[in-house]
TrEMBL record:
UniProt-recorded name of the protein: Exopolyphosphatase
Occurrences of domain Ppx/GppA phosphatase C-terminal (ranges): 323-459
Gene3D superfamilies named among the record's database cross-references: 3.30.420.40, Exopolyphosphatase. Domain 2 (3.30.420.150), Hypothetical protein af1432 (1.10.3210.10)
Sequence ranges assigned to domain Ppx/GppA phosphatase N-terminal in this UniProt record: 29-281
Organism: Candidatus Lachnoclostridium stercoravium
InterPro entries per UniProt: ATPase_NBD (IPR043129), GppA/Ppx_hydrolase (IPR050273), Ppx_GppA_C (IPR048950), Ppx_GppA_N (IPR003695)
Pfam families from the UniProt entry: Ppx-GppA, Ppx-GppA_III
Family recorded in the similarity comment: Belongs to the GppA/Ppx family.
């Protein structure tokens, strides 16, 4: 396969950045050029709720220059992603249209969970180091300008991931109007950080041991440049404290000189350093790994995988499912029932490939919905559907867009509620197809006793045949199954049939 050139554009909260990558099966992913321009989009968004005219025009001029550089390299493909500043701006659609008209670039606003997955993919691309780190309790701490993400691993599996409003720029703006001495401002920032992290530790770290921290985020790359020392990828807890104490004693000009940044960026280093330092203290982690990755590295890895140039050895879909299962456990779902519904739903989905026309991604969404379909019972036994919908919409699942999460939430919502074509206007057909399968799968374990565990699902003569050799009473399953037939037939034009084969 020929070498591909790829451009990754990151429209961040504090800077615009473009990396040019050379991708080939033989040599992997290599960065060959990088350009960046500092622009505080997040300052406008976090203070005013929208991006102002002057910054919008500056952004368009820089992106137009990026487009010219891409043309000079004759890139084979590009991705342009915008994150929290654009995501939270009230006028983001207007800005995206201006960018398209003035530069020809299609910029896509990605959800926080999609953004963090890109960082995760960039880290996982360093397979040997990454796999070794996550053998023990590990947290990926990704500190951005608008927020931070904490992803927990245990025994090489992703346990959960959580977003906290502790971005460096957001923190700086919170105390910008406070007149106080430097030591008092540092104390105030520490109180802000501790308020979020103490709650996180109480909820999610109670019975979990964290040995390693993997640091991600643009600001961390600058903090790694230590005065008079050779930059290293690994530092221990004691060295982290030494680095932080050095940082705390520096004035603004010293930070600029030490870390090679301008004054605007230098004001963000203290919040960034404090967050990493406090995370390490509160978790009791012993080792801090700085893999020196950027979001563009994850975009390049994503492109290489999509184009089948380089196949990742890490199964990110499995991580998403693991996170969903741990979420189900957190809300005290009946796990043996959850596993059965997941099994039946996937068997129905796979048997009907030629009928439903859906792909791997939709199969993953169905699988997540099956795992979370009863999480609402944790809040209310009477209003389960609405509670489940709200839980899913309020919980980020790494790697899923907001729209995908909404598909899952609506699939779970209408698993029990009468389906409303008016209520589900976006992705209505997809939701209806997933609901029909989930309802049928759920009915097959109505007694929660896994009576149809050995069933076989086939499509034959215009019918979806669920055959079981179970010899006991399946009256509950049969009644529930029959109640789901009408909607399934309405959506797919094929009639489900439950057949019990009895031995003579």
């Amino acid at each position: 396969m020929a070498v591909k050139l790829f451009a990754a554009i990151d429209v961040g909260s504090f800077e615009l950045e473009m990396g040019i990558y050379q991708i080939s099966p033989k040599d992997g992913i290599k960065e060959i050029d990088r350009v960046r321009h500092m622009i505080p989009l997040g300052k406008d968004t976090f203070n005013e709720g929208k991006i102002g005219y002057d910054l919008a025009q500056e952004m368009c001029r820089v992106l137009a220059d990026f487009a010219k550089i891409m043309a000079g390299y004759q890139v084979d493909g590009y991705k342009a992603y915008a994150t929290s500043a654009m995501r939270e701006a009230q006028n983001n659609q207007i800005i995206l249209d201006q960018i398209k008209v003035q530069t020809g670039l299609d910029v896509r606003i990605i959800s926080n969970s999609e953004q963090r997955l890109l960082s995760y993919k960039a880290i996982a691309a360093r397979e040997a180091e990454f796999n070794k780190m996550i053998e023990k309790g590990t947290a990926i701490v990704d500190v951005g300008f608008g927020s931070m993400q904490l992803s927990l691993f245990d025994k090489a599996a992703l346990i959960s991931t959580h977003n906290l409003s502790l971005g460096a720029l957001r923190m700086r703006e919170m105390i910008a109007g406070i007149q106080a001495a430097d030591e008092d401002r540092i104390r105030l920032m520490e109180e802000i950080v501790d308020n979020e992290l103490f709650t996180f530790r109480k909820l999610y770290l109670k019975d979990r041991e964290i040995k390693n921290i993997i640091g991600a985020g643009e600001g961390l790359l600058y903090l790694a440049r230590k005065t008079g020392e050779q930059a290293r990828n690994y530092i221990n807890a004691e060295e982290m404290m030494i680095l932080y104490n050095k940082l705390a004693k520096m004035n603004l000009s010293q930070m600029q000189e030490t870390f090679g940044v301008n004054a605007e960026y230098a004001t963000l280093l203290m919040p960034i350093g404090m967050i990493y330092k406090r995370v390490m203290e509160l978790t009791g982690a012993e080792l801090f790994w700085i893999p020196s990755i950027r979001m563009g590295d994850g975009m390049a890895a994503e492109y290489a995988d999509e184009k089948k140039i380089i196949k990742s050895q890490h199964d990110f879909s499995s991580d998403i499912i693991t996170a969903a299962r741990n979420m189900a456990k957190r809300y005290k779902c009946h796990m043996s029932h959850i596993q059965s519904v997941e099994k039946y739903a996937l068997e129905i989905f796979d048997a009907m490939k030629k009928i439903h026309g859906l792909g791997k991604r939709e199969r993953l969404l169905l699988q997540i919905a099956a795992n979370l379909h009863s999480c609402g019972k944790f809040v209310s036994m009477r209003d389960t559907s609405e509670c489940a919908y709200n839980i899913i919409m309020s919980t980020e699942i790494i790697g899923l867009s907001h729209e995908e999460r909404k598909v899952i939430a609506n699939t779970v919502r209408f698993n029990q509620q009468p389906f409303s074509y008016e209520a589900v206007r976006e992705n209505m057909i997809l939701v209806a197809k997933l609901v029909a399968i989930l309802r049928l799968a759920n009915s097959m374990d109505r007694s929660h006793r896994q009576k149809l565990a050995e069933c076989k699902v086939t499509v034959k003569d215009g019918e979806l045949v669920v055959g079981t050799g179970y010899e006991g009473d399946i009256t509950l399953e049969r009644l529930a199954f029959e109640h789901k037939i009408e909607f399934f037939e309405e959506i797919y034009g094929i009639r489900p049939v439950l057949k019990q084969k009895r031995r003579v």
